[in-house]
Specification:
Number of helices: 11
Family: Belongs to the protein kinase superfamily.
CATH superfamily of the largest domain: Transferase(Phosphotransferase) domain 1
Number of domains: 3
GO biological process, one term: signal transduction
GO molecular function, one term: protein serine/threonine kinase activity
InterPro entries: Kinase-like_dom_sf, Plant_MAPKKK, Prot_kinase_dom, Protein_kinase_ATP_BS, Ser/Thr_kinase_AS
Oligomer: single chain
Largest sheet: 5 strands, antiparallel
Strand order of the largest sheet: 1-2-3-5-4
Order of helices and strands: EEEHEEHHEEEEHHHHHHHEHE
Structural class: alpha+beta
Distance between the termini: 31 Å
CATH class of the largest domain: Mainly Alpha
Number of strands: 11
Helix content: 25-40%
Pfam families: Pkinase
């Protein structure tokens, strides 16, 4: 397929994301690119997306390998959804979705999970940032951590620590039930505007609590009793006691929904459109973020719960964590700006604050009534 790379829309630790177009049809899509030698996550995602198709999954378009700037690049083509992630929708609705929207989104996610599970696939990283809000309903995205169920009984696990089930935190297993636990955490996220275990700042302590206490995440007090009962079926600490996706789809909390009458922008405010949506959803494998979201894929056999928790919480097997430098001036590049056009490949180096200020002043002189937005991200 012939295609033309468009503007940069996001960058993560394992992939860079651009818009792309087909020159013949003018079709717009997204391309996730990584050096071929570092593309195992993208290739895993391609394997699953190319085999399966569901209204509740992001659409797969294709892939290719190109030679660019003396580098061999692996490119994954997928549906471009500019409507935002579930997290964007929550923010757009004031930090909490209404109960009807929670029910609607939950059922759509469950339908996607039931489809994956019925085909022997565990997603391994269900959370708000990996759910895209398309016009026809939520879609599960980012299958870079997914695996077939037969590959789940190993010492190597993937995902976001705060959304992991107790059995995953203990390094025991990561099967279908782990996706159900993560779904329950995502329902809490929709209702409360933050993830589970929000009262614990340290991810290491949180993982010990998840894996080795009797605690479960706090339920939203305002949620109806049916909603609380639904959560209780998702968040049972014993994975064998959690309800399956098929069982949960029959729960009274999801009864009586008419998906045809619902829109993803129904929350009493505008649709959750954000230029930041593409930055977060396309690659959830950033080493560490504000929400302590980390990914790992360490093949070592871990001999103790403490070692497993350390690996889960830091994403590395060494004693140090490669954290982003939020205070330095180097390695920042512009992602989007509604001011003067900038060559993003050259980046914003050494003095991004004064650079951004000059852009703002120039735009104010040109259009005094405009609001100028400059967005930069740091490249590791």
């Amino acid at each position: 397929m012939e295609w033309t790379r468009g503007p940069l829309i996001g960058r993560g630790s394992s992939a860079t994301v651009f818009t792309a177009t087909c020159p013949h049809s003018g079709r717009l899509f997204a391309v996730k690119s990584s050096e071929l030698s570092l593309s195992s996550s993208l290739q895993r995602e391609q394997t699953f997306l190319s085999q399966f198709s569901s209204p509740q999954l992001v659409n797969y378009i294709g892939f290719d390998v190109t030679k660019e700037n003396d580098k061999t690049m692996y490119n994954l083509f997928i549906q471009y959804i500019p409507g935002g992630t579930l997290c964007d929708a929550i923010l757009s609705c004031g930090g909490s979705l209404s109960e009807p929207m929670i029910r609607f989104c939950t059922r759509e996610i469950l339908l996607g999970l039931e489809y994956l599970h019925s085909n022997g696939v565990v997603h391994c990283d269900i959370k708000g940032r990996n759910i895209l809000m398309a016009r026809d309903g939520p879609k599960i995205a980012d299958l870079g951590c997914a695996r077939f169920s037969g590959d789940c009984a190993t010492s190597t696990f993937s995902g976001t620590p705060m959304f992991m089930g107790p059995e995953v935190a203990r390094g025991e297993e990561q099967g279908y039930a782990a996706d159900i636990w993560a779904l329950g955490c995502t329902v809490i996220e929709m209702a409360m505007g933050h993830g589970p275990w929000d009262d614990v700042d340290d991810p290491v302590l949180a993982l010990y609590r998840i894996g080795f206490s009797d605690d479960v995440p706090e339920f939203p007090m305002w949620l109806a009793e049916e909603g609380k009962d639904f959560l209780s079926k998702c968040l049972r600490r014993d994975p064998r006691e959690r309800w399956t996706a098929i069982q949960l789809l029959q729960h009274p909390f999801l009864n009586g929904l008419d998906t045809g009458s619902k829109r993803v922008d129904e929350c009493g405010t505008k649709s959750p459109i954000s230029v930041l949506l593409d930055l977060d959803f396309w690659d959830s494998s950033v080493v560490v973020s504000k929400e302590n979201e980390m990914h790992f894929n360490d093949g070592k056999t871990l001999s103790s719960p403490a070692d497993r928790i350390r690996i889960l919480s830091t994403g590395c097997s060494g004693s140090s964590l490669d954290q982003p430098d939020w205070t330095g001036d180097e390695n920042w590049i512009m992602v989007r700006c509604n001011g003067p056009e900038v060559n993003s490949s050259s980046g914003i180096q050494n003095d991004q604050s004064s650079y951004g200020s000059s852009l703002i002043e120039e735009e104010k002189e040109r259009s005094p009534d405009n609001i100028v937005i400059v967005i930069v991200i740091q490249v590791a």
